[in-house]
Automatic annotation (TrEMBL):
<protein>
    <recommendedName>
        <fullName>COBRA-like protein</fullName>
    </recommendedName>
</protein>
<keyword id="KW-0472">Membrane</keyword>
<dbReference type="GO" id="GO:0052324">
    <property type="term" value="P:plant-type cell wall cellulose biosynthetic process"/>
</dbReference>
<keyword id="KW-0325">Glycoprotein</keyword>
<keyword id="KW-0449">Lipoprotein</keyword>
<dbReference type="Pfam" id="PF25079">
    <property type="entry name" value="COB_C"/>
</dbReference>
<feature type="domain" description="COBRA C-terminal">
    <location>
        <begin position="228"/>
        <end position="421"/>
    </location>
</feature>
<dbReference type="InterPro" id="IPR006918">
    <property type="entry name" value="COBRA_pln"/>
</dbReference>
<dbReference type="GO" id="GO:0005886">
    <property type="term" value="C:plasma membrane"/>
</dbReference>
<comment type="similarity">
    <text>Belongs to the COBRA family.</text>
</comment>
<dbReference type="Pfam" id="PF04833">
    <property type="entry name" value="COBRA"/>
</dbReference>
<dbReference type="GO" id="GO:0098552">
    <property type="term" value="C:side of membrane"/>
</dbReference>
<dbReference type="GO" id="GO:0010215">
    <property type="term" value="P:cellulose microfibril organization"/>
</dbReference>
<keyword id="KW-0336">GPI-anchor</keyword>
<dbReference type="InterPro" id="IPR056900">
    <property type="entry name" value="COB_C"/>
</dbReference>
<feature type="signal peptide">
    <location>
        <begin position="1"/>
        <end position="32"/>
    </location>
</feature>
<keyword id="KW-0732">Signal</keyword>
Amino acid sequence: MEHCFRSLLRLSTLVISLIFLLSCFGFTSTEAYDALDPNGNITIRWDIIDWMADGYVAVVTMLNYQQYRHIEEPGWTLGWSWANKEVIWSMLGGQATEQGDCLRFKANIPHCCNKDPTVVDLFPGTPHNRTIPNCCKGGVVSSWAQDSTNAVSSFQVSVGNSGNTNGTVKVPKNFSLNAPGPGYTCGSARIVNPTRFVTPDGRRITQAMMTWNVTCTYSRFLVDKTPTCCVSLSSFYDTIVPCPNCTCGCQNNLTHPENCMNPDSPNLASVVSGGQKSNNLAPLVQCTSHMCPVQVHWHVKLNHNDYWKVNITITNFNYRMNYTQWNLVVQHPAFDNSTQISSFNHKPLNPYTSINDTTMLWGVKFYNDLLMQAGPLGKVESEILFRKNKSNFTSDGSWGFPRTVFFNGDSCTMPPSDAYPFIPNSSIYRNVSLLMLLISLLTTFATHFACVV
Ligand SMILES: *[C@@H]1O[C@H](CO)[C@@H](O)[C@H](O)[C@H]1NC(C)=O
Ligand SMILES: *[C@@H]1O[C@H](CO)[C@@H](O)[C@H](O)[C@H]1NC(C)=O
Ligand SMILES: *[C@@H]1O[C@H](CO)[C@@H](O)[C@H](O)[C@H]1NC(C)=O
Ligand SMILES: *[C@@H]1O[C@H](CO)[C@@H](O)[C@H](O)[C@H]1NC(C)=O
Ligand SMILES: *[C@@H]1O[C@H](CO)[C@@H](O)[C@H](O)[C@H]1NC(C)=O
Ligand SMILES: *[C@@H]1O[C@H](CO)[C@@H](O)[C@H](O)[C@H]1NC(C)=O
Ligand SMILES: *[C@@H]1O[C@H](CO)[C@@H](O)[C@H](O)[C@H]1NC(C)=O
Ligand SMILES: *[C@@H]1O[C@H](CO)[C@@H](O)[C@H](O)[C@H]1NC(C)=O
Ligand SMILES: *[C@@H]1O[C@H](CO)[C@@H](O)[C@H](O)[C@H]1NC(C)=O
Ligand SMILES: *[C@@H]1O[C@H](CO)[C@@H](O)[C@H](O)[C@H]1NC(C)=O
Ligand SMILES: *[C@@H]1O[C@H](CO)[C@@H](O)[C@H](O)[C@H]1NC(C)=O
Ligand SMILES: *[C@@H]1O[C@H](CO)[C@@H](O)[C@H](O)[C@H]1NC(C)=O
């Protein structure tokens, strides 16, 4: 009897721990998965293009296959650990941040002797003889949807003290990618079929001596940070619902008098330029109730029987950042292929799955793809025209507002859903124009006024 009880107990403990384990597994496996970009990754490919007496020359190519996540200033940083005692003799189109201890070398001093080198991109304007194609962009890489031709970054390394046949070379280990902050996890390098290169005239194909791939994926759960963006809402019918107070921080002018700047502050210019000189990249925001560097405002400005219009405004409140190649991801069930968007480029995300209510928006090159630092120019705007899909209207008035918004891949905080502005459902006011509505409102007001008097 007792034995039976004990084994039952043991069994249930086993089941519980099994369930626990499974739930852990389930959690970690969904962590890195982004439903809006299920195949998104950064692939780092090493192509050995030449052998040397004591090693090899490799071109390292970073391909950003992510639809909407780009690498912005100050750019990527790539690290790895050598398998043995390899050194970097020289580099083109990139550089190791530290030379490390090269004391054992007497004549030819290597570029880097570290066991764990860290490499960064060079800047535009690098002398010609130190560049290779796709290098020298200050580590800035476009997202795939926005500009796939610039979603690539390359550098070349000459490696010594390694093997010099495809059987003796050991692949580097422990890759890490900061782009620019944390968030990426890199797998281990896998030897794959050698890459084939087509010459520019298309008449000859060459191939690498040996190739390996490393895949890095982003998880927003690895980035434990406060929000950087918030959403405010309004409609032609109701008052503005602002960003929630203190979304990205609170104004605290007693303990941190400098945690935000008033636009009319006399020392604004000197603080901003001082930050630029010292390369300080921490945001310096304009004082607002939400304290976010970026605010997205969604204004429903028109509601007709067959269509409705939205004005979307992105405002930069950060004095220390020009957002180059910014992008916005917006989820709203009304996005479909008849939606018209002015002044911004757009592309549906995941058009072939059950979730295709999400669209990516970004600026037009040389027109508004640069969201300027806080100030009179720190703003971009667009107008969206939605066709009405009659089945998709709820009566709670919130149908006109987005479900989720991301700015540069980071989630923007929405106002609480019970605070959304009201928009009359057009099916109630089927044949009532805006003018009629106004007239009836005025009449009601007038009647009310008359009664009171
Ligand atoms: C990385 O992305 C590319 C392009 O979307 C895809 O072909 C590849 O399978 C992805 N790799 C991994 C390991 O997910
Ligand atoms: C590039 O050219 C400069 C001067 O023309 C020269 O001093 C330098 O050594 C060259 N660098 C390389 C890597 O060839
Ligand atoms: C090395 O090259 C030889 C000849 O090209 C090839 O047969 C072999 O599979 C390669 N080995 C590796 C590990 O790539
Ligand atoms: C891998 O790299 C990280 C930092 O980049 C380091 O902390 C860790 O010790 C390394 N692991 C191995 C096995 O080299
Ligand atoms: C390695 O990367 C290249 C370039 O991204 C890709 O074409 C190839 O499919 C990858 N190979 C594997 C096995 O992932
Ligand atoms: C700064 O603090 C004072 C007193 O606490 C308050 O009256 C004032 O409104 C605050 N200014 C700002 C810009 O928050
Ligand atoms: C948010 O802050 C503003 C002043 O900055 C204040 O008037 C308002 O009441 C606050 N709202 C909430 C919900 O605390
Ligand atoms: C933003 O760009 C403008 C014009 O190119 C420049 O004057 C300004 O210094 C830049 N601001 C920052 C924070 O980089
Ligand atoms: C867009 O929708 C119309 C019908 O509403 C359809 O005929 C057309 O094929 C669609 N186009 C695309 C690219 O899906
Ligand atoms: C998603 O888009 C495709 C192609 O435009 C369309 O065929 C499909 O019906 C859409 N799915 C949903 C749920 O709207
Ligand atoms: C809507 O945005 C356009 C620019 O796309 C702007 O000219 C217009 O003034 C805006 N309208 C409102 C009501 O905000
Ligand atoms: C919109 O309408 C389609 C078709 O009736 C339905 O499948 C979908 O769930 C609706 N979406 C919302 C948010 O109500």
